Hints:
By secondary structure, this protein is an alpha/beta fold. The protein has helices spanning 16-21, 46-56, 67-79, 96-104, 122-136, 141-152, 166-170, 176-185, 208-222, 239-249, 265-271, and strands spanning 3-9, 25-27, 30-33, 36-39, 61-63, 82-88, 112-116, 156-161, 190-194, 197-202, 231-235, 258-262, 276-281.
Amino acid sequence: MNKIKIIIDSTSDLRPEEIQKYDLAIVPLYVSFPDKTFIDGVDLNTAKLYSLVDQCGVLPKTAARNPEFFEEMFDKYIKEGYDILCILISSEFSSMYQAAKIASQDFDENRIRVVDSRNLSSGIGLSVLKACKLREEGKGLHEIADYLEKVIIPNVKAQFVVENLTYLHKGGRCSSTSYYFGKILNIHPEIVVRDGKMSVYRKPRGKMIKAYNELLDMIREDLPNVDLDHIMITHSISPIGEQYLYEELSKMVPKESIMVTEAGCVISSHCGRGTIGILYILKDKDEK
């Protein structure tokens, strides 16, 4: 059986430690300002992103890689003797999955599996870490991909709260009327990702701690059906929220289950500073 190379994209928001530990290959997306295009996580980090937005007053555009990029990467690892498992941001949010699927058609179908994570940010990362665990257990390419698609991905729960509506408004995802009243009422939208799509679940008003507590209530309701391998707190420069959620979550689950990650430039471009979420996997009913 061939070795398996796991390829992910930069929106998966895993920590550098995990990327190095599991020898993951990263496909970075583009982040473009009017006068310059950057590569997510390579020459642009989240702090620099916000600094540039403050300077120029406009949000960047984000863009996927083309099939030719994936084809070159696939060819490299196939020639090195790997089978390839490629896990990417939801096809509802980006054309990355379609580009990789097109590129994979030029290779033996038994050597490459392209998986639609149906998620974003560390919602992808959770599936990636499961894939790494299965690879360590000696599972084959298609066994891992099938398990992800049938068992893991449908059970990933991702929810975030957005500190303010500025980035959603500037990005055209929030009308001027909603932005105006949202600012007056101090609304912090709670966004959930389900079946690959993003929607507003609730609109907490007032201080951010109320929104944080609603995130905690969601995972509290799901206990004890939460897979404790990894529970993610992912944030876009929200140190207060990170600390609060970590302390409160530590009262519910073992601390070693909690992983804190920072949202990268692509996710931050769309949601803005202060966005924070709790993401986890529900145990499959056959495994409870």
